[in-house]
Write a structure and sequence with these properties.
With about 675 residues, this protein is α/β, with parallel strands linked by helices. Helices cover about 30% and strands about 20% of the residues. α10 runs parallel beside α11. The chain is globular and about 75 Å long. The chain binds alpha-D-galactopyranose (GLA) (2 copies). The site of one alpha-D-galactopyranose has 8 residues, from loops.
């Protein structure tokens, strides 16, 4: 089915969305009145309602109570605040688990969870599927014509795991569709190893707890299955809502963190607007900023460059290693604007008003426990005003000359047991490479391995461990046509079935890279290796034989002394680099700056000043965010959308401040 172009919440066309999760059911009605008043003060125009309201909406099976929600939506509508109306299916009520104990999720070890938190359901259980579609249709029918309804927010952060018998049956059917015959499955999974050949589809189980290392192909297929199964649950609800309200966009909020339950490339074909939640895990200066840019670029990439929406972030804190660390004054605003600069159609938070009780009672909120007379609320309201001034920039496409290839399947596979090192972290390498690009001032698009790469000057490929032949061919043809590409260790090592490609690690890219990886040399713990060009490598090193590639840097010591560490292979009109170790931050910076320069870019000379340009046929917009204590000036001429007035030649960006200029 062709993708629909319904990417604005209805009624907010031309405006940036601003608001957050609104959970009025936690408060008496008199608080609702204050809520709506404060929303107007802050410029809030969209709130997510009902996301965890199932037990309130359906207090007993099949018995619905919508009166309170009618009131809430009427109140919002009369205040001009739109509703991103959620289906509450991420948290079934207690009656559900008593009525349908078989729909409770089961862990790998066979422990059945009970209600008392959230996400307590099995996504394959028929009772859950029926109950979820039923509550979604009830909501759809009741509110189809409500003036507040702007968008549907299906579920919340799909990502529930289960290993029960319902899942086993669904997994088996998924495998039958994928492989057709047991012979093909046995071949793909190399079941000849350890006597695992299957003679009956029903004997194939989810990867439950086993005596020793499980089958790596089975593990990877289970992750694929789970992603597809969760997506099918989204589609079931989406189709019901689409039928009832064809003009209302439908989204679901992705989790973009270290938890990667789904392959979001496939999901993004099914939503009307990509929306993401972002909770950075590191509060150090500039580190959070780099993480934010990564997530925003990924969200834009998942939507194929189309606009997307930051659906949740914490307003005032960053949770790092269990500590809720406050965002320094101005930081929340700059981080929010980084999302907007990189394509978000607004800024949304979890949540509007801080809860008194419940599991997240200590989570920050737009209206904090201290109330609206607070620095926190004032900064929120000021951000609302800023978004009102810069909405026109949404018309611009983010300018990026660099692409970073992103592949969740490689992430999953590298994390599996039985790998040659227990700490292979795809996500960490991808983020480190992206952070080096950020420090070099190079805005990157994040792309699928099979994406059209022709418009990029430089393509960076973090360990693309699992890759289909056509994805590898795509990379090769990009280089042949003149592109500069760099691939990290282990790229091209296994096929889609998670079987090693013969001819040495990185075997699938051997010809493109002009190297043969003869041995692997993981570096445990803090072990490091020095390179002749001064960099330090950690986590991983290899015995690399340069075939047609030129050696850029060698290992300087140890058993690999004198052997290639970084290589570059001239091929066609382009070049393909290979990085066989994980470089320290300084080393990675040097390499990435060199690659940016070599591919025709100009590495930044103002570290911590984030510059993003959005272009359209009629105008360009420059976002300048100063995340440092230094005073920076940027070459720019045009209209200052924040301060008003003209900028002639130079825009001054004071420490901690920001500017948005319509250029020309
Ligand atoms: C043991 C087993 C072998 C093999 C090796 C690999 O020796 O008997 O089958 O698994 O370990 O570590
Ligand atoms: C997620 C959820 C929210 C809330 C926040 C708080 O993003 O979607 O419901 O739990 O985390 O961290």
């Amino acid at each position: 089915m062709p993708r629909r172009e319904l990417a604005w919440p209805r009624g907010l066309e031309g405006r940036l969305c601003f608001g957050g999760d609104y959970n009025p059911e936690q408060w008496p009605e008199r608080v609702w009145v204050e809520d709506v008043m404060l929303m107007r003060d802050a410029g809030v125009n969209l709130v997510t309602v009902g996301v965890f309201s199932w037990s309130r909406l359906e207090p007993r099976e099949g018995e619905f109570d919508f009166e309170w929600l009618d009131k809430v939506l009427d109140m919002l509508a009369s205040a001009g605040v739109k509703a991103n109306l959620a289906t509450p299916t991420a948290s079934p009520p207690p009656w559900f688990s008593f009525a349908h104990p078989d729909a409770l999720p089961v862990t790998r070890e066979g422990v059945r969870h009970v209600h008392g938190s959230r996400d307590t359901f099995c996504p394959s259980a028929p009772a859950y599927r029926q109950a979820a579609v039923r509550i979604a249709s009830e909501l759809g029918r009741r509110y189809a014509d409500h003036p507040a309804l702007a968008m549907w927010h299906v579920h919340n952060e799909y990502g529930t795991w289960c290993f029960c018998d319902h899942v086993a049956a669904a997994f088996s059917s998924w495998l039958q569709r994928r492989y057709g015959t047991l012979d093909r499955l046995n071949e793909a999974w190399t079941t000849s190893f350890w006597s695992q050949s299957y003679g009956d589809w029903s004997h194939i189980l989810p990867p439950r707890s086993t005596q020793y290392v499980p089958n790596p192909s089975q593990l990877l297929d289970f992750r694929r299955f789970l992603s597809d199964e969760l997506l099918a649950r989204f589609i079931e609800q989406r189709d019901v809502l689409r039928e009832l309200t064809p003009d209302v966009p439908i989204t679901t909020n992705y989790v973009l963190g270290a938890w990667a339950p789904a392959n979001l490339w496939a999901w993004s074909q099914e939503v009307d607007l990509v929306s993401v939640d972002h909770y950075p895990g590191d509060a150090r200066p500039l580190v959070t900023e780099q993480e934010t840019a990564f997530v925003a670029d990924l969200a834009r990439g998942l939507g194929g460059g189309r606009p997307w929406l930051l659906m949740e972030q914490a307003p005032h804190h960053i949770t790092a290693r269990g500590y809720s660390l406050p965002k320094e004054p101005g930081r929340m605003t700059r981080l929010s604007l980084s999302h907007v600069a990189r394509g978000s159609r607004g800024v949304m938070f979890f949540q509007w008003r801080a809860s008194r009780g419940g599991a997240e009672q200590h989570h920050s909120a737009m209206v904090p426990h201290a109330g609206p007379a607070s620095r926190a609320f004032k900064e929120v309201a000021a951000l609302g005003a800023v978004l009102g001034k810069i909405a026109e920039a949404d018309a611009g496409t983010v300018e990026a000359h660099v692409a970073l290839v992103w592949d969740p399947e490689s992430w999953w596979a590298l994390r599996q047991p039985g790998m040659p090192a227990p700490d292979l972290d795809y996500d960490a390498v991808a983020r480190a490479v992206h952070a080096a690009l950020w420090r070099a001032g190079a805005t990157a698009d994040i792309v699928h391995p099979r994406a059209d790469l022709t418009s990029y000057r430089l393509v960076l490929v973090p360990p693309l461990y699992v890759a289909a032949d056509d994805a590898l061919a795509n990379l090769a043809s990009y280089v042949d046509r003149g592109g500069v590409l760099a691939a990290w260790y282990l790229s091209g090592s296994v096929d889609l079935e998670n079987r090693i490609r013969p001819g040495g690690y990185a075997g699938g890219l051997r010809e493109l890279l002009g190297v043969r990886v003869e041995e692997i040399h993981p570096l445990p713990g803090d072990a490091t290796v020095t390179l002749t060009t001064g960099e330090t490598g950690h986590r991983w090193s290899e015995l690399v034989r340069a075939e047609s590639a030129r050696v850029v840097s060698k290992y300087a010591a140890g058993v690999l002394a004198g052997q290639p560490a970084i290589t570059a292979n001239a091929r066609g009109a382009g070049s393909a680099w290979y990085v066989s170790t994980q470089l320290d931050e300084g080393g990675l910076d040097r390499l990435v700056r060199r690659l940016v320069a070599e591919s025709g870019g100009e590495p930044s000379s103002s570290p911590g000043l984030e510059l993003v340009r959005r272009r359209s046929v009629g105008a360009d917009w420059l976002f300048a965010l100063n995340h440092t204590d230094a005073d920076w000036s940027v070459a720019a001429s045009g209209t200052d959308l924040i301060g008003g007035g003209r900028v002639e030649g130079l825009l001054r960006v004071a420490p901690g401040s920001f500017g948005v200029v319509r250029e020309g």
